[in-house]
Amino acid sequence: MGLTRRNFLMRIGQLGGYSAAFTMMQSLGLLPLPEIASEMTKLNLVEGAGTSVVILGGGIAGLVTAYELSRAGYRCTVLEARERPGGRNWTIRGGTKIEFTNGFTQTCEFSEGMYFNAGPARLPSIHRTMLHYCSELDVPLEVEVNCSRSALMQADNLNGGVAVQNRRVVNDTRGHVSALLAKAVNQGALDQEITKEDKEKMLAFLIEYGNLTPDYIFKGTERSGFKIYPGANAQPPVPNDPLPMHALLDADLWRDMLAEEVSDWQPTMFQPIGGMDRIPYAFKTKLGSTVRYGCAVQSIRQSSTGVTVAYTNNGAKHTITADYCVCAMPLSILKTLDTDFSPAVEAVIQGSGYDSAYKIAWEAPRFWETEYAIYGGISYLRQTVGVIWYPSANLFSPKGVVVAGYGVENGSPFGKLPNVQAKLDASRHAIELLHPGHSKDLTKPVYISWGHIPYNLGSWIHRYGDGYVKGYDALLVADRRVYFAGDHTSHLVGWQEGAALSAYRVINQLGARIQNGGQNA
Amino acid sequence: MGLTRRNFLMRIGQLGGYSAAFTMMQSLGLLPLPEIASEMTKLNLVEGAGTSVVILGGGIAGLVTAYELSRAGYRCTVLEARERPGGRNWTIRGGTKIEFTNGFTQTCEFSEGMYFNAGPARLPSIHRTMLHYCSELDVPLEVEVNCSRSALMQADNLNGGVAVQNRRVVNDTRGHVSALLAKAVNQGALDQEITKEDKEKMLAFLIEYGNLTPDYIFKGTERSGFKIYPGANAQPPVPNDPLPMHALLDADLWRDMLAEEVSDWQPTMFQPIGGMDRIPYAFKTKLGSTVRYGCAVQSIRQSSTGVTVAYTNNGAKHTITADYCVCAMPLSILKTLDTDFSPAVEAVIQGSGYDSAYKIAWEAPRFWETEYAIYGGISYLRQTVGVIWYPSANLFSPKGVVVAGYGVENGSPFGKLPNVQAKLDASRHAIELLHPGHSKDLTKPVYISWGHIPYNLGSWIHRYGDGYVKGYDALLVADRRVYFAGDHTSHLVGWQEGAALSAYRVINQLGARIQNGGQNA
Q1: CB-based contact (8 Å) between B504 and chain A?
Q2: 20 to 30 A from B253, CA-CA: which of A263, A313, B25, B321?
Q3: What pLDDT digit, counting tens, does each position of B393-449 carry?
Q4: C-alpha to C-alpha distance for B290 and B288, rounded to whole angstroms
Q5: Do B229 and A392 touch (CB under 8 A)?
């Protein structure tokens, strides 16, 4: 049997791990875009030879750690406080019970087949590690439409408060910017910046960029949609009148308009068919009894030879001792436990803050599709509820789950609303502003506020002014025999990819230590 | 049984046609975005009471005409020259035979499940009429990814000829434009255009628009991707260095960069699952023996009472006479037939010109997905073959059909290539420039050149300087008892939506005439 290149690379991968395969592929010139493959290089599996590892938390970081270490011959145990895997990767369906720490309880009443992803809800195509696991674990994906040009934008001081299509804001802005820059270039205002030759090219470019007239005026563009749609009569199509730049500046929709260009929100994006939790449930199937559900950690104690974790299960107290521990719980939980970390690590844990994101979801007939031609994508408002996220699942079916409200509660006007009813009212109001007459079609609300969800107490770690997790570097090294994993120990906070990559880091660190006779290298 | 609003509107629709329902919905304030619904208003079905209509051509225009008129009690016959419905809506699979008028013949060798749409390949969500038929005829749709930020752009004078990701061209351009405009604004060059108050808002906007530094410099942006991808180590992510504006101006990729903003190419877009021809085959099922296949029209003759069409079927000559005729063939074919149109109409037909679009498709392993994270979308090159269109069907499966080459042959460098082998070579070369080492993975080529396809002799009617079909208005009215339909008689040339809307126009004209006792109103 001949050794094809593919077989050869797989063989290399099996023998030397992904990084060997990667180096080989690089040397063969097979990876012309290094940014695509770089994450996959991080896993370097070293034979565990029975080394025992207790993993705290069955979210993506814990599951990936257990899955890979188990394959490499480590004896793994995952302690997961809930009766399900996934952590924040939580898909809510009819019958799901939602209990807040403050006693507020809901039972989701969605119809058969309806669901919503309360936590992560999209997989960018650049998140190669997560896509790798979807492929490896046979989790089928479908396109998640993150941007629709027919989605709406609304501000009280724009267009008389009547929502406008995203295509108008995007393309009218580009038109005005192009016309203004062309004027400056023509006046010679940028002659210090642009060579004479480039000046002509710049002006030709701006006509195309903004869809300007030959004399550099922006008079509107078909890119922004139509007042009179192209038909089959004599009447030619008429594009929408441009929104004035002055009004666009006042409306200040820029952050939302540019959301589609955030590196992790660019097309193409995906979602597992049937709900994001298809991923943790696929891990659950593979891991079997490696994961112990209903096991809430109480304390973590280290000795010179191992780590002992005390936990409760069905009211009974248990302990487990292992050679190493991977702590893949959020710091918001870890800070409430009885631990003996070093003062430096303890300071980082106790000093951490968590944001509390919320989502409100409703079951409704798909008026956004039938009457607004919106299929997936996100509408934005400058209101207390500022985000309406349309479903990408089961497009063209009669009913769907629309997320009318997604944001952070701490410090926001939404978070200051006095009670759940006021929050649901704000959600309905946002729908009514975008889709007049349809707020009454919203049924079966579900309100998730991650700060109130047991075993999370937050949606993601708070990043401060510089965008960094406070004390980040301290979490990247082991505290004696305890390693820290989770998206909060990555540069991709709030993303499953960050959680998976943090697991790769820990696996690599542990492997290096074992190769080094148990000493940190 | 209560009369719900939905039932009420359906009842109105049945009694008075779509335009009555539309007017009612408008008056109820249910259509806040008029551009969305305007096409659906065009159909106004009038009872045909046995009026006979012969329809020439079983493409979308002919099929929609026959389907709607049959429902309204007209006796319809469609003459279709081929043994299949759809016209340019043609999906090619393993076993499909392709015969050019010049004798060049291919038999597609694609594997089971592989296909490519040789003609139309996308349905914009604003094309409400076509989406309506997909819904009505139970043609399941999936998202067609028309834009991927991981797709590539290549020009010999950009980045040393090495392809760059679309995200870099888009976001670096926006960054440079923003920085230049901010400089002009700061210099006061636009003080005549912008009020003092707007000036501050404009500068704040430009920082967000271009992702500039606080002192208005563009130093690159994470929107353009990463040199060092965000991971879970201490190393922070590092964005790509910006492509210089000078180089971007030289590369002149603007038209391709802005393709995603063309009104009919904006997200969200769709394709029928399994191939675009699922639409005509759904009509075929509904229409049954109304469509006669293998019937090539030879002549059209009108009298004061009807229209007589002569055609051949299996070598035998036949005629059919009907009260009216709807001619839904391309003018490129009509101009070759024996007809007795008025001199004015005949002049338009004979004066028409057709473009010849081509596509080249290959079956290949999905290296664009596994190695480049490209899932659907289009790469562009400044080369003889300038478009690489990746499949949106069966993402993540082992193999797919990539369209390496789509454009117009007449007058283009591609069209001047001496033979088919040179065209296939140009196609391979484009793949090799974007995906080095992979041109050898391309197998089972199919080359479609619409100018050489019998019963088409072109892809779409040529539009001249003003963007209009020459003599357009003359085709919008009946030549005595013959009506003209097809995308060439619409403002949406080259789109199935234009064909469907032209059918609506003809149906309405015919209905008005019948209400008027057979006289043109």
Answers
A1: yes
A2: A263
A3: 999 999 999 999 999 999 999 999 999 999 999 999 999 999 999 999 999 999 999
A4: 5
A5: no
